[in-house]
Structure formats: structure tokens, C-alpha cells
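User: Reviewer 2 asked us to show a designed sequence for the structure in our supplementary figure. I'm pasting the C-alpha cells here. Could you produce the per-position amino acids so we can include them in the response letter?
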């Protein structure tokens, strides 16, 4: 499998660059869409970011080459356009957690499209195949990686019940008091968790990593990731948890180059989220399992 763009940038990346300006504008569209919920502001930020990227692309094209035979840097305009398309598709639906048939179909179509459309454009229109999903990545998991999976369960068990119940944010999810609704919640939480890694990490982070050093690309993807989680329901003091989580997922992916591993980490975390929501909506069902 060819090297993933997040793992092997094709050019030397400067520590700081004016290219951060259009990337930041595009990233800031996410809080406009999902936190402030002002669609026109999100559209304006996306348009401004792509316009600045276009101006920079034309300026770069007019400038003489740095050295003959130097590798051609990837197009920032193209990569930001893929992120913008994904954000526009996601922002087209309300992200309030619901479990009825129509809501689940709506989520499946919009979130699926936000991954599939940028992938298709990158592969068959731009023909650079910048969006990839490296399942195995760096090979076998290390002892530390297996240990971290256990740590995720312990940390989730300690932190998540306190967050969801004491803040009251569990009320942002529908009451699940029947086997059917509990099953739907299980499927929904897991599906969104997998999608998070496909879009925020394998699409947004990987595309940004082609242009910026790791920490800058990671902060930019975290802005988008955390904004989505806010509208999904992780509100109150949720960003205290979701910001480190988003940054950590980018770091794990950068180190492992493995979609399988980041998805496993996320699903273990979400398994605890699922149990906490069942516990919060059904006092006594899991009594004694959590500390809160």
C-alpha cells in the first residue's frame, strides 16, 4: 500500500507559513456551523479560506521554481476544498442525537457522503488519491498499544459517568428505556465513532498534514472535531475532555499509521459512553457498575 499522506509529507514543511491563514479560516467554519450554528458565517469562512488559497496558488504558480527538479508541493486549494465539501455536507443536517428511522437514515447519508464525496473527488477528479484509509498501517500492535487500550477503558469508566451525569449532558441523548432503543443507541454511537476517524483523522488531518507540521495540522483538525462533538451533545464542560481526545487521536494516528488502531481506541471509549447513557437514563439497571 502506498504511504499515507499523513505519514510521509512529500516536501519539507516550514515551521510557520502564511498558508495557515486559509486553513484556519476553513477550520473555523466548523465552530460557526456546529457551535454558534450560524450557517451563513460558516459559508463565508469557507469561501474566504478557499479564496485566499486560490490567490496563494496563483502567486505560487507565477513565482520561479526554487530549484530545478524539486518536487511539486500538493495543492492547498484542492485539499482545503475537500475539507470544505465534507463540512458542507455534514452541516446540511441537524446533529441532535435521535434514534428514529428517519434520523438514522439522515445521519447515514450525510456522514457517509462527507467521507465518500471527498474521497471520490480526490481519487477520480483531482487524481492525487490524497484521502486514504490505511487499515493496518504500522504493522503489529506493541505492548504499549495493547496497554493503552486497557487504559482507555479504565479512564472512560472513571471520567465519563461523572461528566455525563453531573453536567446533565446525558439529556442531550434520547431516553433509551426499551431493548429496541438501546440497540439503536449502540449502533448509532459505534457508527458515529467510526465515522469520526474516517472524516476527522483520515480526511481532515491527513489532508492538512500534507501542508503543515504535525502539531499545526493536529490543532486544526481538533477545532473541526470538537465543534462537531459539541453539536452532537458533548456540551457544558465537554471540551475539557473532547479537546485532549481529538488531539490524542491525531497523535495516535501519526504514530501508528493505523486506522484499525484509532478506531479500536475510539470504539472502546464509545462503549463506555453507551453504557453511561443507558445507566443515566435507567437508574438501577447498572447500579454499582459506575462510581456515579
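Assistant: Here is a per-position design you can include in the supplement:
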Amino acid at each position: 500500500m502506498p504511504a499515507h499522506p499523513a505519514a510521509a509529507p512529500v516536501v519539507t514543511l516550514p515551521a510557520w507559513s502564511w498558508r495557515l491563514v486559509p486553513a484556519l479560516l476553513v477550520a473555523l467554519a466548523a465552530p460557526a456551523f456546529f457551535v454558534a450554528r450560524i450557517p451563513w458565517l460558516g459559508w463565508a469562512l469557507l469561501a474566504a479560506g478557499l479564496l485566499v488559497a486560490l490567490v496563494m496558488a496563483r502567486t505560487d504558480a507565477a513565482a520561479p521554481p526554487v530549484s530545478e527538479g524539486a518536487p511539486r508541493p500538493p495543492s492547498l486549494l484542492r485539499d482545503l476544498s475537500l475539507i470544505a465539501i465534507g463540512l458542507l455536507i455534514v452541516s446540511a443536517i441537524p446533529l441532535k442525537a435521535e434514534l428514529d428511522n428517519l434520523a438514522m437514515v439522515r445521519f447515514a447519508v450525510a456522514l457517509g457522503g462527507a467521507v465518500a464525496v471527498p474521497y471520490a473527488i480526490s481519487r477520480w477528479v483531482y487524481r492525487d488519491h490524497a484521502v486514504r484509509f490505511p487499515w493496518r498501517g504500522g504493522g503489529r500492535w506493541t505492548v504499549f498499544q495493547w496497554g493503552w487500550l486497557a487504559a482507555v477503558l479504565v479512564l472512560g469508566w472513571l471520567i465519563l459517568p461523572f461528566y455525563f451525569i453531573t453536567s446533565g449532558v446525558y439529556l442531550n441523548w434520547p431516553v433509551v428505556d426499551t431493548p429496541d432503543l438501546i440497540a439503536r443507541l449502540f449502533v448509532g454511537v459505534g457508527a458515529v465513532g467510526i465515522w469520526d476517524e474516517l472524516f476527522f483523522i483520515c480526511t481532515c488531518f491527513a489532508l492538512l498534514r500534507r501542508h503543515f507540521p504535525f502539531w499545526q495540522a493536529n490543532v486544526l483538525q481538533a477545532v473541526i472535531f470538537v465543534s462537531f462533538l459539541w453539536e452532537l451533545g458533548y456540551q457544558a464542560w465537554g471540551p475539557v475532555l473532547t479537546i485532549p481526545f481529538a488531539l490524542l487521536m491525531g497523535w495516535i494516528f501519526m504514530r501508528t499509521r493505523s486506522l484499525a488502531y484509532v478506531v479500536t481506541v475510539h470504539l472502546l471509549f464509545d462503549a463506555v459512553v453507551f453504557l453511561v447513557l443507558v445507566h443515566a437514563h435507567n437508574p438501577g439497571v447498572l447500579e454499582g457498575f459506575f462510581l456515579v
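For the response letter, you might also mention the following. Residues 1-10 have pLDDT under 50 and may be disordered. The first helix runs from residue 20 to 34.
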